[in-house]
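Hi V.,

Quick status before I head out on leave. The structure for the redesign project is tokenized and pasted below; the design run finished overnight.
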């Protein structure tokens, strides 16, 4: 069996004529499981006569073995595990079932001798990689004049995960644009598996802002996925970069667009923990920063809200200076996004954060300290070890093997852990929503306090939260508040409500204008109904039924639009 070839036959010795044998072909054509030629003159990937006839295992088994090697599994264990699987399905049937120690040893040697540098020139090296891995590239644009470099990567396994978890599910973007640690912008598209872990389904690398060039690479990705399933469509898409062209995403995926404030939340919390010592000051400043994003609720402008914040906390000079330099230039952009887009619930934030921590430890850390950050090094880091870890983690979930080797970050996903905390362990006074408490799952005599519960800017006093991370207690309280309709409502819902009231209270005299206004009201009602459907599915906070329109310290429910 050669290169995954399914051609095989059965030999039977004739009892009456022992010198003759009967050959029965079970599969006569030399094709793999996809129906493509595996070797010979029809194989376009065969180079030279040696490649035409050299035995080779399939790409699926190669990916499996390479991932296990990257995960640190020994050669002997890989071979033993493979033999057990072959015996489990009834014995050898094709070339893959005859995996040998030499096969594994050759792949081990390949990993050890592999290099990201295919050419001394970085641009040439990237072009060579694209030529060798064209099946994994859905978009490529070289740097030319005013045109930036863009590379879209999606392996066959990532495409399968996109089909599996993305359909009627949630797709999120994780952007590293503007990071000091890597030279190029990197956007990871994520889907969420059955354990609420974020799985990378595509990577896009660019020398400029990815949001401004999304109209170039996104249609190619959609065409690729629809080539496998024309009915594929996500339930919602989370954007974490205000520069993304929302209209392009909405047109491509035909789904709801939600705003993810995870980058803002983490950046502000990290800054407060670094520059402010007092915990009470930290939580009050954190809550006040959240009000800046929602400043249009009480009619004030973002500039007035920022100036008020800077005046109140003028004594926190270190954080104020950092805020002025990093966030002030783009605060208006974020406020506008919050005003126009529904804001996602807290739960996906935790999974995106877990992916961020893994990306930082396994990829970005390998790039830090390099005098000349090459793009081919980033590509190599993503598509080899980093990709293998996610493949292997999913293999553990699907098969149950090697549970003791599963990555710790996957096992400690706060979203997944929050779902296993009982409601009875949440202590919340509905008359006083300033804070909530969650009983520790490890020690019932300990309870953690969550300030500003139900908001994206809630803060817990547990050790994981105190280093700037999203903890399971904050997520659990957010889920609890949502189920009790105590969570802060969406600002976009208020904007829709105000527009409806304005249209109803100031009816135009012109019949044509009136007809257009009625059509706009109908469209807004349909939009709100879609938001309610997303809220019921847990992707964003539900619209509340309360009537309190005053803005206290902890924002109260906003009336539902009927």
């Amino acid at each position: 069996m050669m290169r995954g070839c399914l051609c095989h036959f059965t030999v039977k010795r004739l009892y009456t004529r022992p010198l003759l044998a009967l050959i029965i072909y079970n599969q006569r054509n030399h094709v793999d499981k996809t129906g493509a030629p595996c070797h010979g003159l029809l194989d376009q990937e065969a180079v030279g006569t040696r490649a035409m006839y050299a035995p080779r295992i399939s790409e699926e088994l190669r990916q499996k073995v390479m991932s296990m090697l990257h995960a640190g599994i020994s050669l002997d264990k890989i071979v033993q595990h493979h033999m057990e699987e072959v015996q489990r399905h009834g014995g050898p049937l094709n070339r893959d079932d005859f995996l040998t120690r030499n096969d594994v040893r050759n792949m081990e040697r390949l990993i050890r001798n592999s290099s990201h540098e295919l050419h001394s020139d970085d641009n040439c090296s990237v072009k060579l990689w694209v030529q060798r891995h064209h099946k994994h590239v859905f978009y490529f644009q070289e740097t030319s004049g005013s045109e930036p470099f863009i590379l879209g990567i999606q392996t066959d396994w990532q495409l399968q995960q996109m089909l599996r978890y993305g359909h009627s599910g949630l797709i999120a973007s994780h952007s590293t644009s503007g990071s000091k640690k890597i030279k190029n912008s990197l956007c990871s598209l994520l889907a969420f598996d059955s354990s609420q872990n974020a799985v990378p389904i595509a990577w896009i690398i660019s020398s400029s802002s990815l949001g401004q060039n999304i109209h170039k690479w996104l249609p190619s990705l959609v065409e690729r996925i629809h080539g496998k399933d024309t009915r594929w469509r996500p339930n919602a898409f989370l954007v974490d970069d205000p520069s993304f062209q929302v209209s392009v995403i909405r047109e491509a995926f035909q789904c709801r667009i939600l705003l993810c404030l995870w980058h803002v939340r983490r950046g502000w919390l990290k800054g407060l923990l670094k520059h402010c010592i007092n915990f009470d000051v930290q939580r009050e400043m954190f809550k006040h920063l959240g009000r800046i994003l929602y400043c249009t609720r009480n009619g004030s402008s973002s500039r007035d809200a920022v100036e008020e914040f800077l005046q109140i906390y003028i004594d926190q000079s270190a954080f104020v200076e950092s805020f002025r330099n990093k966030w002030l230039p783009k605060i208006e952009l974020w406020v506008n996004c919050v005003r126009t887009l529904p804001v996602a619930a807290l739960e996906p934030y935790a999974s995106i954060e877990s992916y961020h921590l893994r990306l930082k430890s396994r990829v970005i850390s390998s790039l830090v300290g390099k005098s000349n950050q090459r793009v081919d090094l980033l590509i190599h880091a993503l598509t080899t070890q980093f990709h293998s870890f996610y493949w292997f983690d999913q293999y553990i979930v699907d098969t149950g093997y090697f549970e003791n080797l599963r990555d710790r970050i996957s096992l400690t996903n706060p979203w997944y852990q929050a779902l296993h905390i009982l409601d009875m362990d949440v202590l919340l006074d509905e008359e006083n929503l300033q804070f909530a408490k969650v009983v520790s799952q490890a020690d019932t005599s300990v309870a953690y306090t969550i300030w500003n519960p139900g908001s994206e800017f809630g803060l817990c006093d547990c050790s994981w939260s105190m280093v700037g991370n999203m903890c399971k207690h904050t997520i659990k309280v957010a889920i609890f508040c949502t189920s009790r309709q105590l969570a802060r409502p969406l600002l976009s819902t208020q904007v829709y409500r105000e527009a409806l009231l304005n249209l109803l209270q100031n009816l135009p005299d012109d019949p044509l204008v009136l007809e257009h206004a009625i059509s706009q009201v109908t469209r807004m009602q349909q939009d709100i109904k879609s938001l309610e459907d997303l809220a019921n599915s847990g992707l964003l906070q539900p619209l509340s039924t309360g009537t309190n329109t005053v803005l206290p310290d902890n924002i109260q429910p906003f009336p539902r639009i009927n």
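Above is the designed sequence. The longest strand covers residues 198-206.

G. will cover questions while I'm gone.

Best,
W.
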